[in-house]
Amino acid sequence: MDSRQLRYFAAIFEEGALARAADRERVAVSALSRHLANLEADLGTPLFERLPRGVRPTASGARLYEHARAILRSMQAATADIKDSEVEVAGEIAVGFAHSAVKAIGVPLMQRVSQDYPHLRLHLSEIFSGTTTQQLASSEVDLTLTYNQLPDSRFRFKPILEEEVVLVGRPDVVGGRGPISFAALLDLPLIILRQGLNTRAVMDDPSLLRQIEESAQFQMNSIAAIGGCLLSGVGCLLGTEFIVKEHIDAGKLVARPVMKPTLNRTLYIGELSDRPSTFAFEAIRQLCIDLTVEAVNTQQWNATQLIHFSR
To answer: Any idea where the HTH lysR-type domain is (predicted)?
Structure first.
């Protein structure tokens, strides 16, 4: 197996037909078909089902594509890194942030990249904490800022900050403004943001998470929809002040501290453990850390910095 075979295989997978893949790669269909046949022979399994019009990946083909995409992306990053290292930081980096991270440093990050690294292409997306490892493993993103990550030898997760988890909603829904016990809030119309294991973004205690999931009246995968429900009085959210800070500042919503026990969540910066580093990746990673720490130090982000990073 070589890089050309992988590139041709990925083109066939993405285009769904040998003719279209051949046009894309600017090679003859016969040559593409020969490379595919050799690859299938080497692996000892068919990678595509031949259809009257096009091809459909087999289970083995779908699995190989995940590896091929990561390998080809690493090769592209290495090529760009070496070619451009003597001139300036360039290349392509994809970062995936939890909602709070996007809200806090998304715009400043893009401004700094535009100013300091004009030849670097940045892909910024909002992801759920429950999908972090999946997106890192498949190379959909190179770097993440997400909450409450479980230890996994495939990845490096470093804690950056810790936030207090509070009860947020209209005063008439959450029952006042003062502290509330965890047991008492379970009787309220709770809304949780849920996708896969994303409720781990609220807290890391499995027993408390289970109680929240069992008590929650509503489960949504949209921050915007949750904000609308909070303002309309449909329910209340167990989260952080920062998520709806503008509504709290405007007096439309209140945040009640949770007691017995107090609740916190931790933000981690994550990457693949065996990912080859590039100048572009190191620049963006350090910039994400610097901007996060700056947001905490200037009190734009109400959180506790957990570790000091240096260049």
So the answer is: 1-58
Q: Tell me, yes or no, whether 135 lies in a domain.
A: yes
281 and 258 assigned to the same domain: no
Torsion of CA 74, 75, 78, 80, to 10 degrees: -110
What range does the domain containing 18 cover?
3-83
- For 240, how many CA atoms within 13 A lie in the half-sphere containing its CB? 24
Q: Is residue 306 domain-resident?
A: no
The answer to whether the pTM exceeds 0.90 is no
Residue 311: inside a domain: no
* Residue 86 to residue 90: CA distance in whole angstroms: 10
Residues 141 and 166 in one domain: no
Task: Kindly report, residue by residue over 40-72, the tens digit of the pLDDT.
Answer: 998 999 999 988 888 999 999 998 998 888 788
> pLDDT (tens digit, 9 = 90+) per residue, 255-305?
999 998 988 889 999 998 887 778 888 899 999 999 999 999 998 898 999
**Kind of pairing between the strands at 263-272 and 120-126:** unpaired
Distance (Å, whole) CA 71 – CA 279: 18
Distance CA 226, CA 201 (A): 15
Predicted local distance difference test score (pLDDT) of residue 72: 81
The model's pLDDT over 120-171, given as tens digits with 9 standing for 90+, comes to 999 999 887 777 888 888 888 999 999 888 888 889 999 999 999 999 999 9
> Are the CB atoms for 197 and 306 separated by under 8 Å?
no
Question: What per-residue confidence (pLDDT) applies to 311?
Answer: 45
List the CATH number of the domain containing 191: 3.40.190.290
Asked, for residue 130, whether it belongs to a domain, the answer is: yes
**Tally of domains in the chain:** 3
